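B., you asked whether I could sanity-check this one before it goes into the benchmark set. Here's the sequence:
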Amino acid sequence: MQQVPAPTPAAPGSAVPDEAASRDAALGDALVGAGKLAPRDLERAQAASAELGNRLPDVLVQLGLVSEADLAQARAQLHDVPLLHADDFPQTLPELPGVQRGFLVLHHVLPLAIEDGVLSVALADPGDAFVLKALRLASGLQPRAAVATAAEIDKALAERSEAGGEGEDAADADVDSGEFVEHLRDLASEAPVIRMVNTLIGRVIELRASDIHLEPFEDGLHLRYRVDGALDTAEVIAPRLGAAVASRIKLLAHLDIAERRLPQDGRIRTRVKGREIDLRVSTVPSVHGESVVMRVLDRTAVRLSLQDMGIPADTLALLREMLVRPHGILLVTGPTGAGKTTTLYAGLSELDAATQKIVTVEDPVEYQLPGIVQIQVHAQIGLSFANALRSILRQDPDVVMIGEMRDGETAQIAVQAALTGHLVLSTLHTNDAASAVIRLVDMGVERFLITSTVNGVVAQRLVRTLCSQCKAPEAPDPAWLQRTGLHRHLAPGAPVYQPRGCPACRGTGYRGRLGIYELMVIDDALRRAIGEGADASALQALALQRGMRPLHDDGLRRVAAGLTTVEEVLRATQDAGDA
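And here's what the prediction gave me:
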């Protein structure tokens, strides 16, 4: 029998193969056709998929635009195969000689039955010709595909493997596994590994990194830091130390180092150069080992003051006016990593927690705020945003902050909370302020309820700040000024500044990030338009007539002030309605 090989993983950011991209495109169209996905959201996810090199279905789920169940249902219809659930899986899985278990786990394949030369399998992606061909060549059987969610397949593979581990072979495997885990634990406790992990964590302060990525490949463990939103490779750790380094991090995060087949999440609290640092740790299995990502939460570095966030004075005045209203909803929108949660925290810090009951529901709680009750969502035990929100409304709060409106149920409860005299702050994933209203409609919130509750919407992005030590002035071309719209903000004869690169900014020309904002105040004119069924474009146009400054224009003002570049503003706002 031919052995199924473990495929070499694509490098980070690499393109998705044409055959897979074609399947993904068809799946996206099917989701739109089924009403599970808005066309604009599909375009946004496709752009993110192309930029990151990740598969479109993965991006759709990560952005919270569709669920795994939605994907499975769409794939079943698209490929005309049965849709199975966990209850449909057999208690005992058939033996598949020649097929490595790692192959099944990597590609989310669950063998169901063998009969008359036919192998029945449940797949997360039943249209994957490579997987079906590999199964046929390795097993000598003709695969017959059904579809199930990746999560249900992974859980069944893990449970059936554990349940089937009886007898002498299983006992031997348990001994071998136990010895390997103890060996890993010993390696992770040795001084060189401890020093290496301490050093790679210690660099986050000098680099001002927001994330640490440890990615296993054939040549070793690739260490990368995300600085000012961009990833940069620092070094490659030798393969012999890769598993030990990952295990050391898992030990610090109180994770199970014996479990290397399933994703895990944990947290590390440490001191680096006198500063309290929280690291949110995520591990996922890959072909060459466990991929580890640590999100850096530097509690001393976060700016929890609206005044210090660089919000323009006129926008800041309007925002503060909304924060002192006794009830209603204030939304902050933007893509992942745009600083939405930081803006909400800064808004909460301006409220008087001594005279008001302020409660937050978050996933996860990133920074602890004095005088504020903060609740961590735990979906595994049924504590969802919606369930937590129902409970805290019985806690007599004045202000409620919801980390993210992820579904219609949460949105409906938030609206009811605003109607009953609470101030509600929350975030949404939309490209601009006007689209937030349409997202609420898509979630099932009636338009008359939106007009009765939503006070305003802030849309924001982060742009890189020019390095103050090496930025260089240039005389701009008049035609370029007209083309970019910068002529409206730049004084005649004034220069624009360009990045040059120096040791202080590690040659990038940029150091730090700042926010650009648009604030849509829901006044009487906009309420009428929302009630009459206006779409996002019409609402955006009306808001501009009513004095809203769009994201792009706010960014150009920062260019004129010598803080950033036109290229940065265009990069950050290219998906917004005004760019």
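One thing to flag: Residues 168-188 form the longest helix (21 residues). Otherwise nothing jumped out at me.
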